[in-house]
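Dear Dr. L.,

I hope this message finds you well. Following up on our conversation about the binding site, I have prepared a predicted three-dimensional model of the protein together with zinc ion. For your records, I am including the exact sequence and ligand specification that went into the calculation, followed by the C-alpha coordinates. Please feel free to forward this to your student if that is useful.
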Amino acid sequence: MNRHVNLPPSEEGKKLNLSSQKNDQFKAVYKRVENCDDLYEFECLYSPEIDYGEKRIIVPLTSVYNGYERFSKGTNFVNILGSSNDKPYDEQKAKKRWKDFAQLANITWECHAEKDKFYDRQKIDIPATGKDFECNGVDDNGNVIDANIVGGHVLMETTVARELKKDSNAYIIPICKRHNSKNLPHFNSNNKNTTPGNGNGFYMKLSSDTNVIKISGYVPANKDFQ
Ligand SMILES: [Zn+2]
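The resulting structure of the complex is given below.
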Protein backbone atom coordinates (compact mmCIF):
# COMPACT_ATOMS: atom_id res chain seq x y z
CA MET A 1 0.00 0.00 0.00
CA ASN A 2 1.30 3.44 -0.88
CA ARG A 3 0.71 6.31 1.50
CA HIS A 4 0.24 9.49 -0.48
CA VAL A 5 0.40 12.66 1.56
CA ASN A 6 -0.68 15.92 0.02
CA LEU A 7 1.66 18.61 1.33
CA PRO A 8 1.48 22.24 0.15
CA PRO A 9 4.08 23.41 -2.37
CA SER A 10 7.31 25.03 -1.18
CA GLU A 11 8.11 28.57 -2.33
CA GLU A 12 10.32 27.23 -5.09
CA GLY A 13 7.80 24.53 -5.88
CA LYS A 14 5.13 27.16 -6.52
CA LYS A 15 7.40 28.88 -9.02
CA LEU A 16 7.50 25.74 -11.14
CA ASN A 17 3.86 26.32 -12.04
CA LEU A 18 3.31 22.65 -12.79
CA SER A 19 0.07 21.48 -14.32
CA SER A 20 -1.90 19.14 -12.08
CA GLN A 21 -0.96 16.34 -14.43
CA LYS A 22 2.76 17.07 -13.99
CA ASN A 23 2.21 17.48 -10.28
CA ASP A 24 0.90 13.93 -10.14
CA GLN A 25 3.81 12.74 -12.20
CA PHE A 26 6.57 14.20 -10.02
CA LYS A 27 6.45 12.73 -6.54
CA ALA A 28 9.12 11.90 -4.00
CA VAL A 29 9.37 8.99 -1.58
CA TYR A 30 10.40 9.58 2.03
CA LYS A 31 11.26 6.79 4.41
CA ARG A 32 10.60 6.85 8.14
CA VAL A 33 13.83 7.44 10.01
CA GLU A 34 14.68 4.41 12.11
CA ASN A 35 13.65 4.73 15.76
CA CYS A 36 12.04 8.06 15.02
CA ASP A 37 8.32 8.15 14.34
CA ASP A 38 8.03 11.78 13.41
CA LEU A 39 10.70 12.24 10.77
CA TYR A 40 10.95 10.99 7.21
CA GLU A 41 14.11 11.02 5.10
CA PHE A 42 14.28 11.52 1.33
CA GLU A 43 14.82 8.23 -0.44
CA CYS A 44 13.99 8.41 -4.14
CA LEU A 45 11.64 9.62 -6.83
CA TYR A 46 8.28 7.84 -6.91
CA SER A 47 7.38 5.20 -9.48
CA PRO A 48 3.67 4.27 -9.57
CA GLU A 49 4.38 0.60 -10.20
CA ILE A 50 6.25 0.10 -6.92
CA ASP A 51 4.69 -0.73 -3.55
CA TYR A 52 6.63 1.30 -0.99
CA GLY A 53 4.83 -0.10 2.04
CA GLU A 54 3.87 1.33 5.40
CA LYS A 55 7.16 2.91 6.38
CA ARG A 56 7.22 5.39 3.53
CA ILE A 57 5.21 8.40 2.49
CA ILE A 58 4.84 9.80 -1.00
CA VAL A 59 4.66 13.57 -1.35
CA PRO A 60 4.43 15.96 -4.31
CA LEU A 61 7.90 16.88 -5.47
CA THR A 62 6.80 20.51 -5.51
CA SER A 63 6.36 20.34 -1.70
CA VAL A 64 10.03 19.47 -1.12
CA TYR A 65 11.66 21.19 -4.09
CA ASN A 66 13.99 23.96 -2.95
CA GLY A 67 15.08 25.20 -6.32
CA TYR A 68 18.46 24.70 -7.81
CA GLU A 69 21.90 26.05 -7.22
CA ARG A 70 24.66 26.74 -9.69
CA PHE A 71 28.10 25.29 -9.04
CA SER A 72 31.36 25.83 -10.91
CA LYS A 73 33.40 23.34 -12.82
CA GLY A 74 35.73 21.49 -10.46
CA THR A 75 33.40 21.68 -7.41
CA ASN A 76 33.80 18.59 -5.22
CA PHE A 77 30.79 16.39 -4.58
CA VAL A 78 30.03 12.98 -3.08
CA ASN A 79 27.30 10.38 -3.01
CA ILE A 80 24.91 10.34 -0.08
CA LEU A 81 25.24 7.04 1.74
CA GLY A 82 22.18 5.02 2.68
CA SER A 83 21.40 5.10 6.37
CA SER A 84 20.58 1.43 6.82
CA ASN A 85 21.10 -1.98 5.33
CA ASP A 86 17.80 -1.83 3.49
CA LYS A 87 18.12 -2.42 -0.18
CA PRO A 88 17.25 0.90 -1.79
CA TYR A 89 14.40 0.98 -4.26
CA ASP A 90 15.45 0.76 -7.86
CA GLU A 91 15.53 4.30 -9.14
CA GLN A 92 15.92 3.23 -12.70
CA LYS A 93 12.16 3.03 -12.96
CA ALA A 94 11.92 6.71 -12.09
CA LYS A 95 14.72 7.77 -14.38
CA LYS A 96 12.56 9.18 -17.13
CA ARG A 97 10.85 11.41 -14.59
CA TRP A 98 14.16 12.64 -13.19
CA LYS A 99 15.21 13.47 -16.71
CA ASP A 100 12.02 15.46 -17.26
CA PHE A 101 12.42 17.19 -13.92
CA ALA A 102 16.07 18.05 -14.63
CA GLN A 103 14.89 19.88 -17.73
CA LEU A 104 12.82 22.19 -15.56
CA ALA A 105 16.02 23.26 -13.82
CA ASN A 106 17.98 23.54 -17.07
CA ILE A 107 20.27 20.66 -16.24
CA THR A 108 21.60 18.55 -19.10
CA TRP A 109 21.04 14.80 -18.84
CA GLU A 110 24.61 13.53 -18.86
CA CYS A 111 27.21 12.47 -16.31
CA HIS A 112 28.39 15.66 -14.61
CA ALA A 113 31.40 14.05 -12.94
CA GLU A 114 34.84 14.46 -14.51
CA LYS A 115 35.13 11.58 -16.89
CA ASP A 116 36.90 8.48 -15.53
CA LYS A 117 37.99 10.35 -12.38
CA PHE A 118 37.40 9.05 -8.87
CA TYR A 119 39.21 10.97 -6.17
CA ASP A 120 40.00 9.42 -2.84
CA ARG A 121 40.02 11.09 0.55
CA GLN A 122 43.77 11.48 0.58
CA LYS A 123 43.33 13.70 -2.49
CA ILE A 124 45.07 11.27 -4.75
CA ASP A 125 43.78 11.41 -8.29
CA ILE A 126 43.05 7.78 -9.10
CA PRO A 127 43.79 7.15 -12.76
CA ALA A 128 41.31 5.32 -14.92
CA THR A 129 42.93 1.95 -14.97
CA GLY A 130 40.59 -0.90 -15.61
CA LYS A 131 36.86 -1.03 -16.08
CA ASP A 132 36.03 -0.06 -12.52
CA PHE A 133 37.23 3.48 -13.04
CA GLU A 134 35.60 4.24 -16.34
CA CYS A 135 32.68 6.61 -16.42
CA ASN A 136 29.95 4.77 -18.32
CA GLY A 137 27.92 7.86 -19.22
CA VAL A 138 29.16 8.15 -22.81
CA ASP A 139 30.02 5.71 -25.57
CA ASP A 140 33.27 5.57 -27.52
CA ASN A 141 32.08 8.35 -29.80
CA GLY A 142 31.29 10.66 -26.91
CA ASN A 143 27.52 10.24 -27.20
CA VAL A 144 25.52 10.14 -23.97
CA ILE A 145 24.25 6.66 -23.06
CA ASP A 146 20.86 7.58 -21.70
CA ALA A 147 20.32 4.22 -20.01
CA ASN A 148 23.40 4.74 -17.85
CA ILE A 149 22.48 8.17 -16.49
CA VAL A 150 20.63 8.41 -13.18
CA GLY A 151 19.60 11.18 -10.81
CA GLY A 152 22.33 10.78 -8.21
CA HIS A 153 21.71 11.87 -4.61
CA VAL A 154 24.73 13.89 -3.67
CA LEU A 155 26.23 16.37 -1.24
CA MET A 156 28.01 19.35 -2.77
CA GLU A 157 31.30 20.98 -1.76
CA THR A 158 32.57 18.13 0.35
CA THR A 159 34.92 15.20 -0.14
CA VAL A 160 33.49 12.80 2.43
CA ALA A 161 30.62 10.54 1.33
CA ARG A 162 28.26 10.24 4.27
CA GLU A 163 24.65 10.11 5.35
CA LEU A 164 22.43 13.12 4.98
CA LYS A 165 22.44 15.46 7.96
CA LYS A 166 19.22 16.57 9.61
CA ASP A 167 17.68 19.77 8.26
CA SER A 168 19.79 19.75 5.14
CA ASN A 169 19.07 19.51 1.45
CA ALA A 170 19.76 16.52 -0.73
CA TYR A 171 21.21 17.58 -4.06
CA ILE A 172 20.23 15.74 -7.22
CA ILE A 173 22.48 15.71 -10.25
CA PRO A 174 22.60 13.48 -13.33
CA ILE A 175 25.63 11.18 -13.16
CA CYS A 176 26.44 7.83 -14.68
CA LYS A 177 25.68 4.61 -12.84
CA ARG A 178 29.32 4.05 -12.07
CA HIS A 179 29.90 7.43 -10.52
CA ASN A 180 26.59 7.08 -8.69
CA SER A 181 27.22 3.94 -6.72
CA LYS A 182 29.86 1.73 -8.18
CA ASN A 183 31.32 -0.78 -5.83
CA LEU A 184 34.98 0.14 -5.95
CA PRO A 185 37.08 -2.27 -3.90
CA HIS A 186 39.98 0.14 -3.98
CA PHE A 187 38.08 2.62 -1.83
CA ASN A 188 36.00 0.27 0.23
CA SER A 189 39.00 -1.57 1.57
CA ASN A 190 39.97 1.66 3.34
CA ASN A 191 36.56 2.11 4.91
CA LYS A 192 35.76 -1.03 6.82
CA ASN A 193 33.12 0.49 9.06
CA THR A 194 30.77 1.59 6.36
CA THR A 195 28.53 -0.07 3.82
CA PRO A 196 30.48 -1.14 0.76
CA GLY A 197 29.45 -0.46 -2.77
CA ASN A 198 27.30 2.64 -2.52
CA GLY A 199 29.58 5.42 -3.60
CA ASN A 200 31.54 5.21 -0.41
CA GLY A 201 35.12 6.40 -0.01
CA PHE A 202 35.54 8.56 -3.07
CA TYR A 203 34.56 11.97 -4.28
CA MET A 204 34.07 13.55 -7.70
CA LYS A 205 34.48 16.93 -9.34
CA LEU A 206 32.02 18.67 -11.65
CA SER A 207 33.09 18.47 -15.26
CA SER A 208 31.50 21.85 -16.08
CA ASP A 209 29.50 24.69 -14.54
CA THR A 210 26.01 23.34 -13.87
CA ASN A 211 22.78 23.72 -11.94
CA VAL A 212 22.02 21.14 -9.25
CA ILE A 213 18.52 20.37 -7.92
CA LYS A 214 17.85 20.84 -4.20
CA ILE A 215 15.32 18.69 -2.33
CA SER A 216 14.46 18.84 1.39
CA GLY A 217 16.36 16.00 3.02
CA TYR A 218 13.70 15.46 5.70
CA VAL A 219 9.97 15.87 6.12
CA PRO A 220 8.55 16.08 9.67
CA ALA A 221 5.45 13.99 10.25
CA ASN A 222 2.25 15.78 11.16
CA LYS A 223 -0.96 14.48 12.64
CA ASP A 224 -2.26 13.49 9.21
CA PHE A 225 0.28 10.84 8.47
CA GLN A 226 2.06 9.76 11.62
ZN1 LIG B 1 30.35 9.14 -14.90
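In brief: Residues 68-215 form one domain.

With kind regards,
A. P.
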